[in-house]
Give the backbone structure.
Amino acid sequence: MLIGFQNVTFEFGARVIVEDATWHIQPGDRIGLIGYNGTGKSTLLKVLVGEYSPSKGTVEKSKETTIGYLHQDLLSFDTNDNITEVALSAFERIRELEKEIEKLGHELEQDSENEELLIKYTDSLHELDVLDGYNIHHKAEEVLHGLGFSNEDLIRPYKEFSGGWRMRVLLAKMILQQPDVLLMDEPTNHLDLPSIEWLEKYLLHYKGSVVIVSHDKFFLNRMVNKIVELYQQQLHIYTGDYEFYEQEKMIRIDMQQKAFENQQDYIRQQERFIERFKAKASKAAQAQSVQKRLDKIDKIEDVKLERPDLRINFQLDKVPGKVLVELKEVSKSFGNLKIVEDAIAEIERGDKIALIGANGKGKSTVLRMIAGTEEFTGGERVWGHNVDESFYAQHQLEALTMNNNILEEMQGCGSKKSDVELRSLLGAFLFSGEDVDKKIRVLSGGEKARVALAKTIVSKANFLILDEPTNHLDMHSVELLADALNKYEGSYILVSHDRFFISKTANKIWEIVDHKIKEFKGTYQEWVDWNERMAKIANEKQKLGVPNIKIEEKPTIKVEPVQPKPAQSTNNTINKELQKELQKEQRRLNNLEEQLTKAKLEETKLENALGDPANYADKDRFVTIESDYKKAKQKRTDLEKEYETVFERVMDLEGQM
């Protein structure tokens, strides 16, 4: 074990994050730490690295284990050094050796016969060679290029870069440090698709262990061999990728639900026995014994999925014409930076377009050009007939009314939906209960982004323009948003680095290639398959004789059926027979329960009839009712005796089981 929890409980005031959790991170583990927003995943990482101390239990770590921790708070770091120097700071000992060797070299120039200096110089060179110190510049450049930096970027000061690009530099540094355990909190938030794909390939061959908090299903599915889910203050561990987790979780939930229902049936049955016989002298002791057994039973929790549900019925005021918007030979540049030049594109009714590509290619710029919030260098945009557009981007946060509460902000967006419908929608965007009464001005940036997105989604627009709509949403909310957009009868174009979301929503792919807008008619997976085929054809045509570097596929986790040991076969047979007998007696008991209820009702009915003065006057009728009453009473007594016998048989069989 490298690091882990042993019976750890951690609390923030009265709020329990995790209770009595045991979790060990082993060499070779690639773990996805998942859970709904606000459950405390990032907090757990901080407990692991010692920033927070557990209320109970211990965090265990071997003395030799090194840990790298990538988290959002790192963005407070600032420096005038260029990004290559920041990345190279990962090689602390090697940089010390370089300075030491340089110093010793100068000293030897002055005193070349000094044997002690020569030995130190030789030893330092040897240590540098052992640590592969001559290749650190190459390694740093390779990682920075993989994360999307150009050659020109490598000499730019770190402080010139935006938050997302700074996080990439710090990620590069952490990767180069090669810690035994790499803890990564939302590493893909600041990466474009090519950089995510590069990171996947790199981490798949990483020798250390990795723990990743991420809402990117595709990334997790390719990356991890274990899932740790933080759910209802417990850690649930699944050995497999994300897809395996989804399947196994449903099986676990189904089993728990059935176990809960069976236990509830059992409890009700015991309680009925106690109620029926607690006042009967001959059975009072047995009823008391059953009550004691019930008091000691370990209660199975009901399955309550803590996730919102989203039911949006989109209502479009207008049906647009066949063509919604045309871009005619549009051009856009920022100084010497060219985004598009004489680009032509068209969005038709029914199009659901994902605009993808590397950061810096101008995806968000193109969206703003379509929306009309970005001026053109050349060309024109032409709207079609009856088009009502709604644009979501991060800058939309500034358009929110700061003094409104969340519900008031939603009421003012013109959807004419009821407060109940709006509350349901806000629940899907992680605003529940009293949250909707919060003022916009007190919300965090992520919360404001979710309000702005909810306003965009609920509008009656027939054309949506969405820039990174899945930022600040957890996995379930991303699924809800994808489902909602699939029901949407209008058209949309979106930018997202979430491949699951794109694969669920897009029927066309746009890419900016050589300053043109290139369109692919098909889904994201079809686009991926097509690109792979094209790359294969191109490689075959080159015939350079260079062997292809084969990237190993992620190992498939096979769950072998456990064969029962021969010594257990007899016990298994006996248990099966007991189980069959128990089920048979249980059915008898349930049947008797129904008969007893009917018999009791009949007895009560006849008892009431005997007390009716109208029946006193008719002697024959009274005699008949009296006779029927005696029979009903006897029947009920006989059924109770049989019920007692069968109940005791059930108890005996359960004891044997």
Q: What stands out?
A: The chain has four domains: 3-103+134-246, 247-296, 323-542, 578-656. Residues 546-568 have pLDDT under 50 and may be disordered. The CA atoms of residues 175 and 453 lie 34 Å apart.
